[in-house]
Amino acid sequence: MSPTWVHRIAASAFVGLLLLMLAWLLWLHPPDGALMSIALITLVGPLALALRGVLYGRRYTMAWSAILILIYFVHGVTYVAVPGPGQILGAIEIALATIYFIAAVVYLRLASAGHAASAGRTAR
Description:
The chain is an all-alpha fold. It has one domain. It is about 85% helix and about 0% strand. The protein is built from four helices and no strands. Helix 1 runs antiparallel to helix 2, helix 1 runs antiparallel to helix 4 and helix 2 packs antiparallel against helix 3. The relative contact order is 0.16.
């Protein structure tokens, strides 16, 4: 599989997770009024900061955002474990976080292999 396709899968999952978090916090299951700004900053802020680097396929951003995405995995697990309307949203969050993590790791491996191969060709 080419790095381009893996990057597209990772970017799609990342954008999907960002849109899910926005919809979750603003329309589907919003927190209390006083907690809205805190929830937006802590759950949407990190995704928004990494969005540009993920969309452009920057390896450094893909690496640290793959670690960051584990927080969203745990967040989804906590909502799936508690009965209520957030179970389905938590399951979707788990799926998107897992897809992104796997695709980002595979992309980093393919991109670094391609980078090392091109560096070896120019060094000769």
